[in-house]
Specification:
363 residues; alpha+beta; Helicase, Ruva Protein, domain 3; 2 domains; 5-stranded antiparallel beta sheet; 17% strand
Amino acid sequence: MPEGHTVHRLARALTDLFAGQRPAVTSPQGRFSAGAALLDGRVLAGASAWGKQLFVDFVPADGAARPTDDVRVLRVHLGLYGAWTFAGDGSAVVVHAIGAPRRRIGETETVPGAPDAPTPLPRGDASPASAAGPEGDVGAAGTADEPETGWVPPAPRGAVRLRLHGVHAVADLSAPTVCEVLTPAEARAVVDALGPDPIRWGEAVRAGEEPDAHDDPERFVDAVRRSRTAVGTRLMDQSVVAGVGNIYRAEVLYRARLDPFRPGASVPAEDLRALWDDLTDLMLDGVRTGAIVTTRPEDRVPGGTTGRHRVRQNSDAVPGAVPSDASFYVYHREGLPCRVCGNPVLVREVAGRSLYWCATCQR
């Protein structure tokens, strides 16, 4: 499942490619025809991410002042198998794919194809690949006022739930866990059920803005400390902290030297605040680079993941990037020596997910 930094990058890609346009909204598969009809003909105002949830706002095309209830919000949660694939006319650098199958997003393991799993869209000679890899940044697209380019996009391939066809690009959504049209109030109710998002909080702080009160890190601290549930389990609860997945969970606990099985109520508040700050820095770096790198320079010894798990990063082909086999302390390194103490990294299944840790460093 894509982690929060990936969904934030996706929101930026959709905004860059389609904001200000009236993309044709269709459901080639047919399963989202009613929802697509509610959005087609409207202006895509922009996209945003809250944790692993994506929200895309569509407003009336006539430009008239309308109540906020006239905004229609596309909500997407990719889940395990969801993905967006993109193709463009060559006028902008277009990201190729974001989402599952996980081998295409780079920061997680390969997952067998699902019945509804997507296949990549053909790019064509005029659509240059991003220098940043399969999840590279995208360039700004034109607006709906520009003349038609005559570009014919590739036909949808696979079971495409939703297609956005803009002036210079198409975006196809396949196999999402959630794809629905909401009112702003309904979208806010989804957000209200989430924990604070370290990326949103960190971006606001770095921009010198007041963060949304919803993203106050004290909400995270209080949620962990009021329960005896293991801190490693609480970090994967999206109502406690939004956007954290299996990699960030394992790595931030290691960097904090916290035993993942320690009851949350026994973890000092100052330790949790320090963990939040570290998590914020790591996830913001993931948004910037499209890759998860948690190792400190002095600990980056290559050859660091097991042969059974080929962990690919979106920056693998970028000169000077940290190689994927040197990027993690414990994730997918079971049985290998800890980069710091040399004792074997352990793994245990917790709530259906593999949890990686070093029993020596994380006492």
